[in-house]
Amino acid sequence: MKKKTLPRWLKNAIRNRYLYLLISPGLIYFFLFKYVPIWGLIISFQDYLPFLGISGSEWVGFKHFERFFTEPTFWMLFKNTLILFGLNLVFVFPVPIILALMLNEVRQPFFKRTVQTMVYVPYFLSWVIVVSLTFILLTPEGGMINKLIEALGGQSTNFLASESWFRPIYIIQIIWKEAGWGTILYLAAMAGIDTQLYEAARMDGAGRLRQLWHITLPGIRGVIVMLLILKVGSVLELGFDHIFLMLNSMNREVAEIFDTYVYTTGIKQGQFSYSTAIGMFKSVVGLIMVLIANRIAKLFGEEGIY
Questions:
Q1: pLDDT at 2
Q2: Which terminus of the chain has fewer Cβ atoms in its 10 Å neighbourhood, N or C?
Q3: What is the CA 14 to chain-centroid distance, rounded?
């Protein structure tokens, strides 16, 4: 009698059981909080009422999408979100790359580790703390920056309630908080570059700048492209908590974005179907942008994300 053998996939699962156990918390998280809620998108096509539930609520088709696209608010939200995303892409995205390239040229290990720690620590602070520190520095009632301006003969400015100052402050906050995280990723990619390439370049007379341009940057190009594709996918997903904490009645015209508008209409006003339709629109646009960016990357010979 022939002994039954286990299928190959089951053998691999048993052999790598500890690896699967290691990634199981992440898989459970994504399943519960990313995939299960997809079922709730159906209420964007209904006039959802909590006491009737999904099965009992009236089906209205694309009514909420039509309302959203025809309201003047849509263009304000779209403009604000695109402008902030564009500023992110131009000013924030290159900073970790530049910082990593600079740190990679440092030959003093102690100084290098010290700078890495200093730029990495802010990443662990919540946006509540970052915005609170900003308030302490910029408030017109005794803020350090305004005190310095007055000491130099200028007038105190209410930066936090100014439309013109909202976007620069927003970008500076993101750079200060998140540049360190990106730097770690790029430094890890640089560590994988073959050191023999640098030795050969030095023998051929290449200086530090030429080595950086012809070896280091091409060596991390794949990581740059991958992170850029993911960044483009979040074109309408700028993050709720940061903007919400900076938002006030004085800067709403330039600060209100899709994320904060979903909270206002969905949670505060109870328009669940309408806010779900907005969230679905954001997700679809993000998916399309990722697919387009990935396709463009492949046309230029890069691997992309899949």
A1: 55
A2: N
A3: 36
